[in-house]
Each structure stands twice: as C-alpha cells, then as structure tokens.
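Usage

Read records sequentially. Each one opens with the input sequence:
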Amino acid sequence: MDWREKVATEKRAAFRDWEYWGRPLPGFGDPRAELLVVGLAPAAHGGNRTGRVFTGDRSGDWLFRALHGAGYANQPNSDHREDGLLLTGAYVTAAVRCAPPGNRPTTDERDNCLPYLVREIQLLADVRVMVPLGGFAYSVLSRVTGLRPRPRFGHGVEVSLPDGRTVICSYHPSQQNTFTGRLTEEMFESVFHRARRLARR
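and closes with the structure output:
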C-alpha cells in the first residue's frame, strides 16, 4: 500500500501531468458478464495511474484488443477512465487490488484481497467462462473456486468446474511474454474466441 501511494506521488516522467489514482482498484465491466478475466494486479503506471484495471499500459492494450476482436469490447483501446470503453458480456478484475513492487504480490497481499474476488464472483452470477492471466491468477482462482486437483498451468489449458463453468488458462500479456514471443496476439486472441464459443453453448 505504501509503495502504491509512493508511485502515485513520485510518478513517471512521462505521466508527470497526471493525477494518479493511487488506491485499490475495483473490477470493470458488465455485471451480467458471461466471461470473467482475472489478472495479476494493477500496473504501477497503468491502472494505478488511470484508476481502471488494465488501462494505460501495454498489457491492457493486448487485452482490450483481444476482447474487442472477440466481440466483448466496443473499442480496442483502454487509455483512461473517460475513453468511452464499454464491455458487453465480460468483466475484468485482478487477484490483487493494489500495484505491488515489481509486479510481485506478497502472500499477505493475495490473502487480503481474496475476499473481494470471492464477492465479485458471487455477484457475477451469469459467468460461464473464467480466464486467469498467468499462473498467479490461476492459483488464486483455483483457490476461490475450490478446484482440486488443480491441473498444471499452461496456455490454453481448459478445466471444467463441477458447477459447469470452464476455466481457460492464458499466459499474461506482460512485456516479458509478448516481447519474447512466448505469447503472440494470435495465441491470445484464440483464448477469447474459444471462451465466447464455450459461453454461448
């Protein structure tokens, strides 16, 4: 929490004219969503700056392009809270609500934020498919849904839950994955097209 606020005060030079959000981030999207996307945590100069999850950073660029391509978003970009972005049938959230140093949440941060994710999932009663972005989000989502045994994480791995919902794993669209080619746009987009087909079955 202290680090989140420190970043919001010191800022990055490119964003020195911004008034950073610098607080915990809620989820964003359609309350009647069929698709739930769970990320890791807000980016220090992305969501922590803009006040909307996956907004204002390169990971968000990838995510909302993919959601737009699958018909879940009205536009392919997410730049700031007043940019007109609307999600239909999708909801985006994160396992941890505050930007952590080095994008590495502690177990305490994970556990403190867990009740918020639990409550969101309870409220999103129409969700049929859940997409965790990365192994951390997958482990948290598995804990929340009671998934046992938990299949090993891998891009495109699909897991059916006892209640009929499906989890589709995806690599996180971090620069570490996208710059190295571990995750391509085609790979990423295919997850959301698959999610849409499963949700509409």
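Summary fields computed downstream for this record:
- The chain has a mean pLDDT of 94.
- Helices lie at 2-10, 47-50, 58-69, 107-123, 135-145, 175-178, 185-199.
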